[in-house]
């Protein structure tokens, strides 16, 4: 696997005309941020050696290079999910490649279900911590040389970047919440009882991605900032039916605010 990672990084490096130290993973319904990237060039996942291909509606499947906030960046427009049938090595393969390309900071975004009664649909939740409910750990198996066998996870989401995001949100009059993200395998949305359980355990939002990518990023010494867009609500007295289309619609409406925060953090950090 490590040889494949190096092969993919080498293929990209030969074709890159920029030198990004920042990467962004765009979640469900959040791919429009890619239109904000200037001086861009891109590669389809299907053209990149060893890269998986996204199968989920709303995930375009492109690796985009260019500028955001005046800085060189790379962006994944479409991620890979455990529920698609990939193993964790495949799900986190792009993050391993990012490390080989010299990425120092990773921005992650996702659409998630809110369990905190203070949350509203369309709100942005800055991720302060996570709970891992995936049945397979992304670091299971032979240890990669990018980090220790037993990596510390006391600060999975960078405190300085969170503080900067709060400052930017206040300046721009963007309402943000803080919360704990619960990562689950999917692909079913949660039952009312599951929502309540995750809330009791300390979760504020739940989704089917992000956690594996963050674990591998931290193992590789990459600092992380994450935002969840609250696209549906659950765990309350009245059960609410939710569809993938509704999740995408709610994510779309929140994109300008998330993009503003990402752009300003990149510009100032």
TrEMBL record:
Chain coiled-coil ranges: none
InterPro entries linked: Nucleoside_phosphorylase_d, Nucleoside_phosphorylase_sf, Pur_Nuc_Pase_Ino/Guo-sp, Purine_phosphorylase
GO molecular function: purine-nucleoside phosphorylase activity
Keyword set, alphabetical order: Glycosyltransferase, Phosphoprotein, Transferase
Domain annotation Nucleoside phosphorylase: ranges: 23-267
Enzyme class: transferase
GO CC list: cytoplasm
Pfam families xrefs: PNP_UDP_1
Pathway where it operates: Purine metabolism; purine nucleoside salvage
Biological process terms in GO annotation: nucleoside metabolic process
EC identifiers of the protein: 2.4.2.1
Domain of life (superkingdom): Bacteria
Free-text function comment from the UniProt entry: The purine nucleoside phosphorylases catalyze the phosphorolytic breakdown of the N-glycosidic bond in the beta-(deoxy)ribonucleoside molecules, with the formation of the corresponding free purine bases and pentose-1-phosphate.
Protein family: Belongs to the PNP/MTAP phosphorylase family.
Protein name as catalogued: Purine nucleoside phosphorylase
Organism (species): Prevotella bivia DSM 20514
């Amino acid at each position: 696997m490590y040889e494949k990672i190096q092969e993919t990084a080498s293929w990209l490096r030969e074709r890159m005309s920029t030198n990004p130290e920042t990467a962004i993973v765009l979640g469900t319904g959040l791919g429009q941020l890619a239109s904000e990237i200037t001086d861009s060039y891109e590669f389809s996942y299907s053209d990149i050696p060893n890269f998986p291909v996204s199968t989920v509606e709303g995930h375009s499947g492109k690796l985009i290079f260019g500028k955001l906030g005046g800085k060189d960046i790379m962006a994944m427009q479409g991620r890979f999910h455990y529920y698609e049938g990939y193993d964790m090595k495949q799900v986190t393969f792009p993050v391993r490649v990012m490390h080989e390309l010299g990425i120092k900071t990773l921005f992650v975004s996702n659409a998630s279900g809110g369990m905190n009664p203070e949350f509203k649909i369309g709100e942005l939740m800055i991720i302060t911590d996570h709970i891992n409910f995936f049945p397979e750990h992304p670091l299971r198996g032979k240890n990669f040389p990018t980090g220790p066998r037993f990596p510390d996870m006391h600060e999975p989401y960078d405190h300085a970047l969170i503080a900067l995001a709060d400052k930017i949100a206040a300046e721009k009059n963007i309402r943000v919440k803080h919360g704990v993200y619960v990562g689950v395998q999917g692909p079913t949305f949660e039952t009312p009882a599951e929502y309540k359980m995750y809330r009791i355990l300390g979760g504020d939002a739940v989704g089917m991605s992000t956690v594996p990518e963050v674990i591998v990023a931290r193992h590789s010494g990459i600092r992380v900032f994450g935002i969840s867009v609250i696209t549906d609500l659950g765990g309350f007295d009245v059960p609410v039916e939710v569809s993938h289309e509704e999740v995408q619609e709610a994510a779309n409406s929140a994109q300008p605010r998330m993009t503003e925060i990402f752009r300003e953090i990149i510009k100032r950090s």
